[in-house]
Amino acid sequence: MGEIKEFKPEILKEIDRIIKQFPEGNQKSAILRVLHLAQNEFGNWLSADTMDYVARLLHLNPIEVYEVATFYSMYNVKAVGKVVIEVCRTGPCCLVGAENIIRHLENSLEIKPGQTTADGLFTLKTVECLGACGYGPMFQIGETYYENLTEEKVDGILNTFRTAQN
Ligand code: FES
Questions:
Q1: Contact 2/49 with Cβ under 8 angstroms?
Q2: Separation of CA 54 from chain center
Q3: Spatial CA neighbour of 87 closest among 156, 158, 145, 157
Q4: pTM to 2 decimals?
Q5: Sign of the CA dihedral 130, 40, 54, 61?
Q6: Ligand 1 contact via 130 beta carbon (within 6 Å)
Q7: Domain boundaries, the chain
């Protein structure tokens, strides 16, 4: 049994508001937004305990929540580092060098996609199209898109986060 998790009252209120936007009996439709809130609230990832909690709140079977959480790459179902780098690996970005950028990140961070650096700072993920196909290669960190990436640009971005950490 893991730790007991609960949303703060103001977030529970927000969830109630979200649920009420859908017709009676369709509370499942709120799942994406509630999972976002849960991920933000509980350490940027969704543990089994967190997903079970969301299932209880929405009166769903846990498996229904697991299915959604594991389908979308925007949800982390494993603990992640402070900085999650989501690199697009879909065709148009690959045509302009996404694979080189991924290789460069792997070498610089000494991890593979799906892994977190030993210091807990960076997690590397590869994801499908992020809708910035004309600006590849690109990755997303939090809400920010980094576009037209080169190895030099990537080094600069990594260093900025390393420096901010110290
Ligand atoms: S293919 Fe990379 S953002 Fe669309």
A1: yes
A2: 17
A3: 145
A4: 0.85
A5: positive
A6: yes
A7: 9-71, 83-165
How many residues does the structure list for the chain?
166
Would you say the CB of residue 55 lies under 6 angstroms from ligand 1? no
Task: For residue 92, give the ligand 1 atom closest to its CA.
Answer: 1
pLDDT in tens, the chain (166 residues): 456 679 999 999 999 999 999 988 888 899 999 999 999 999 999 999 999 999 999 999 999 999 999 999 899 999 999 999 999 999 999 999 999 999 999 999 999 999 999 999 999 999 999 999 999 999 999 999 999 999 999 999 999 999 998 7
| Fold exhibited by the domain 83-165 | Glutaredoxin (3.40.30)
Contact 41, 11 (CB under 8 A): yes
Q: Are 97 and 147 contacting, i.e. CB atoms less than 8 angstroms apart?
A: no
The CATH fold assigned to 9-71 is Arc Repressor Mutant, subunit A (1.10.10)
Q: Which of 73, 88, 101, 127 best tests ligand 1's pocket when mutated (most atoms within 8 Å of CB)?
A: 88
Q: How far is the CA of 27 from the centre of ligand 1 (A)?
A: 32
